[in-house]
Amino acid sequence: MNINPDIPATTAVPGEKELIEEAVALVASYPKVPITVDCVIFGFDENELKVLLIRSDLPLFHGKWSLLGDFAGDQEELDDAAYRVMRSRTGMDDVYLEQVRTFSNPKRHPGGRVLTVAYCSLLNIEHHQLKTHENELHWHSFNGLKDMAFDHQEVLDYCYKWLQKRMQEHPLGLNLLPDKFSLRELQNLYEVVLNVKLDRRNFRKKFFSMDLLIDTGEYEDDVPHRPGRLYKFNFQKYEKNQRSWIGIDF
Amino acid sequence: MNINPDIPATTAVPGEKELIEEAVALVASYPKVPITVDCVIFGFDENELKVLLIRSDLPLFHGKWSLLGDFAGDQEELDDAAYRVMRSRTGMDDVYLEQVRTFSNPKRHPGGRVLTVAYCSLLNIEHHQLKTHENELHWHSFNGLKDMAFDHQEVLDYCYKWLQKRMQEHPLGLNLLPDKFSLRELQNLYEVVLNVKLDRRNFRKKFFSMDLLIDTGEYEDDVPHRPGRLYKFNFQKYEKNQRSWIGIDF
DNA sequence: TCAAAAGTGTTATTGTTACACCCATGC
DNA sequence: GCATGGGTGTAACAATAACACTTTTGA
């Protein structure tokens, strides 16, 4: 790289400055598209999977439910944009967030072509108070949702499938629970999200055998029956022992 | 919807036409970004994983290898754009292609901000002849690749991890082999891509027990040793018997 | 006849499923 | 004392991992 960009290395070869100008001109000549991020924010409450929604602020979709989203800033990394959306609308921070997929149907926005990159987030409803209730921002039951704004139904359905798959391979779901949880809560979570019925003893055996639950020594409170032990998840140990080879399974 | 858009349903409420105009104006007011698709096209030849590359045509990256990519058309679905890239540069068609991830680092293109959506493709090198060799388009060994143009090294590494994971859950890898293949070829493929050593007898048992291999009755040819039986993969049967619940495994 | 890979079974171990009874607590 | 869910063990079964010899072909 030249120290002084005004003096090219040789007179025959263009300097880095010229090359960059050329690249800038090239990029400027290409079609551009508005980009949004849309956040599918899952929660778990009262034994139901919930998703954080607002009323669409686009009059064309008056009354319809919409995911939380916003246009991406000019020089903004999309992960940052997704975090910004979460923070600005809910005050939530430091949560699990992951890019899931980009939706590019040219008809997906009635105002013209808009790409959206879907992000999926999982958080514990109790630990994060909504900072606003503008546009009826609220936790909506995942089941029975239909006829959302834009292509948000499709985005949501895709993210739900993603969640189901991902939860079986990674301890994602624990982000939906409080820090301390009973095994019953954990099992309910898996049963509800994966839509299966699991054997209680086998479920316990499975989780205990992974040796990733830390017994807090504490017990549930305010339950109208024998209280269960409360556990924490050992995320540290999990991170350390990542398996690489699993097996062929299809 | 109004039959005649010039006469709103009521005088107080704006008609659909006005709402759409409003949406169009809104979209027009937002920042726009150029979008590209980049195709990571994997092949398998001489017992090595290969990837289809060209020399970057951006002078700034003179001599560096680049994925096949192009800007997305104004009203083009990104899947279509990825297909177009494959077809226009290689003549290949009707191949496995899937969106993997969007890369949005604002610094990833020296000419300014350009988003790219990475697609991953798997095909059999023998069955698809390159239609051109412009820009040194060729099958490059995956191993030992480094210092590519743009962030293409990162994109490629991400797609490789994606491939490894995906190949264990779906019979993706078969797209890399000829229609008829021996079990040795199949095992080599898995060993190379997943970078593991597998027991031959257990590997056979595994695949036969899935009952998805069709014995063609034919045998290898031109091998300097006892020829192996050739099989086809029963994609139809596989598609029909998709499992929904697998299990908790992490 | 040699080299090279094809083809083939058994055993030990591990993980998974199915299943039923007593226990602790709140009401 | 009763309703509710907590907590526990075992046996059958399925899947996986480890391991070695004979067969077939081309050269």
TrEMBL record, chains A, B:
InterPro entries: NUDIX_hydrolase-like_dom_sf, NUDIX_hydrolase_dom, WH-like_DNA-bd_sf, WH_DNA-bd_sf, WHD_NrtR
Pfam families tied to this protein: NUDIX, WHD_NrtR
Domain Nudix hydrolase: 35-157
Domain NrtR DNA-binding winged helix stretches: 173-233
PANTHER family given in the database record: ADP-RIBOSE PYROPHOSPHATASE, SLR1690 PROTEIN
Name of protein: DNA mismatch repair protein MutT
Species of origin: Filimonas zeae
